[in-house]
Batch of 2 targets.
Target 1
Amino acid sequence: MKAETPKKPAKPVSALTGRLHKLGIYNDADLLLHLPMRYEDETQVTPVAAARPGEPVQIEAEVEHAEITFKPRRQLVARLRDDSGALYVRFLSFYPAMQKLLEPGRRVRAFGEVRSGFWGEEMIHPRLQAVQEGEVLPDALTPIYPTTAGLAQAALRKLVQRALSRASLADHLPEALRRALRLPGWERSLRYLHQPPPDARLAVLEDRSHPAWRRIKFDELLTQQIQLRRAYVERRAHPAASLPPRGLLTARLIAALPFALTGAQRRAVDEIARDLTQPWPMQRLLQGDVGSGKTIVAALAMLQAAENGMQAALMAPTEILAEQHYRKLADWLAPLDIGVAWLSGSQKKRERAAMLARVASGEALLVVGTHALIEDTVGLERLGLAVVDEQHRFGVRQRLALREKTSGRLPHMLMMSATPIPRTLAMSYMADLDVSVLDELPPGRTPIVTRLVADARRDEVIERVRDACREGRQAYWVCPLIEESETLQLQTAVETFETLSAELAELTVGLVHGRLKPDGKAAVMEAFLRNEIQVLVATTVIEVGVDVPNASLMVIEHAERFGLAQLHQLRGRVGRGAAASTCVLLYAPPLSPNGRARLKAIFETTDGFEIARRDLQLRGPGEFIGARQSGVPLLRYADLEADVDLIEVARQAAEELQARHPEAADALLARWYGGRAELLRA
Ligand code: ADP
Ligand code: MG
């Protein structure tokens, strides 16, 4: 157990230690969990004449000749010979030590792939090692570890060997449970993976389906589940204000709405109402595809807080969105005589001061804003509920900052996201959240038709825009994402605005982009909403949440450059009214395989969950949520798609372990997360 506590570096970190840290290795336990990515078979020697091109083999031979040549460039070339034949080894970069190793007459082993080259049969950059008289071959496959510059495989291997001989290999899984799950023992599994016997089947080792691998993955998932359960339990130990539904304001808002809530909305409202009643902080994610109507659900929750005399805040990632929420809320709540305040970074000093005063005095119980809300000057001492819209756009810190507004009792948290989270992800990384899903769109929406059009046909697309606007509809024209340069992106948007203005002279074309002053941005959006602008040229600032029901056509230029979630979000800006909507994805061939896969996915489905699933496949969970986002360590070995069966089992096992063997649960956390578990909880 002792070896598993991370040692804080007391003295300056050595180069070796620094490199190990880079690999996430802080102690022996970390070394043991640093598992090979593949293996090489050095248990056998292949005669030179029997080496087949393209197959990694080990040969043992005598150096016949070696020289440094300069044609076509500086390189070290040597001829090696055994009883069966000879081949060349070639190094484009080399150290003096290698020259020494390759002095004529020496015996060496070389591991690599043979190919036919300029000199005849050759190995390029094989792994070389000197052979001493009477030296025996290794009796295990050679593990190849993920490593970093300046840390040689051999050194890493030695460190792992040492850890195997001195660190705890205790099996933290109760024997009965292990047997029930038909998993091999921990020590056996670890040893097998670090030192597989020569007859081990490389295929099942490398695709990680071997039982030893399953055991590792299971423990990883189990530990993650334990961590999540603890966070869940810990949260419930904090006090929060109980805000039971009093039916005063909420009922009046529902009665005044121009529409009836969908079944899914009603369910979500009920779930949230129940959570708010509890004396511990809610942590709920409201998931619903674009246009599913999350805002009204949030508004009802905010009113429930207000009914109890508490403040509620709604934070949105962009000014446009925050302002839109503010207007909508003010509009809905006007008949109820409930004050709403609004805060943004760009606000005039005087307006801001007035808003802050309304918040501080309690005249406005509801506050809407951008991250300007989390600034210290904003007094939300009576904050009972914090709503975070498009939560994936905020970092953990920003989301948590709202929670720190109060002293003593924590506010309830409602996170909203239109980026659906695949079930496997929700079960693993997000298990600390309760989830409500809006899986039903408000009635009267017509499905969006998606078209893929090569950019050579841009002119036809412009005609489509003209036709749509002639029929009284409106269109978005989204300019390409230019990752390297924001300036370039802006320039493109301005140019597109100019050409479209010229080509569609009879229409009013507007332009909105990130560099516009918030006032200017709001004015353009307002004009678009009132149909004073028919075609809105935009950068991705319109990506989230913007709601203009009359816009029924969206054109996205260089769609191949956008991420899948982003395309889905953008497309969701249309199809919000009753008219049939179209999304035209302009692309520039040739497409990369990944770009093609993304366009195919977005073309084939409008189901946010299916899109999220494919996005997860294309990008992997790290990219998908980011460790920073989730606050939960990323899985290193288990795969959410391939090991979904293990996730289910791990969930149950975590519960059992936590209840009946808490010390084993502790030991697992220490083994997998070491000192990091504490950090993650913060
Ligand atoms: P999102 O989930 O993308 O945030 P919004 O909350 O912006 O969706 O809602 C999209 C549009 O649908 C808004 O104009 C909203 O007023 C409207 N809406 C919400 N719920 C309903 C409903 N039950 N019936 C009809 N329209 C609704
Ligand atoms: Mg929204």
Target 2
Amino acid sequence: MIILKTDEEIAVMAKAGRIARECLLRIGEMVRPGVKTKDLDRFAEDFIRSQGALPTFKGLYGFPATICTSKNEVVVHGVPGETVLEEGDIIAIDVGATYQGFVGDTAATFPVGEVSPEALKLIEVTRKALELGIEQAVVGNRIGDIGHAIETYVRRHGYSVVKDYAGHGVGRSMHEGPTVPNYGRPGTGALLRKGMVIAIEPMVNAGGSAVVTFPDMHVVTKDGSWSAHFEHTVAITENGPVCLTVV
Ligand code: MG
């Protein structure tokens, strides 16, 4: 179901978004060889609670942690634990914070120490794909315009978008309508209206688009290729897209 938000609600969502983003950026500064993903998770939970917010993901669908830590061939929903970051890895971090009942959802992929030019390019293409998707989040466009912009750019670089997982509406629940796929045909899908808030989140594989999901929820590429993930929570307003997950 698509639930439109008032300006007042969007203002609260911007606070949730700022907390999630600040958490994400601080984790980005902690990313280095030798760090365990469980240490990043502990920091995230402490930080989010210190801001008067709650860790959105913890307990959601049974997920046990505050953040998702998805390394290399892990696409999304990596579970923090004893995994150690090593020089040359890439690590996608996804953060959700709930503030005064509203959710902010944001993700980014970070290099661990020095990484290969190929890995850096995958990160950069995914980041740019998100930017291009956000540009399409304007009143009068349709959901398919967002996915089309993302997939066209990704394919031009020889990569593929994950089709089994998608962005989503966000509000009092982390997952509301509409679904926001990272592919689509222009002019198709739900009409974008003022007051919609959506999480746009390209998941980009260096190889094929097929993925495998494990019982603990973590998702990996079927061909073992590396994958990157970026996400912002975006409000659709009369003045264009407004990114709520910014500091
Ligand atoms: Mg999301």
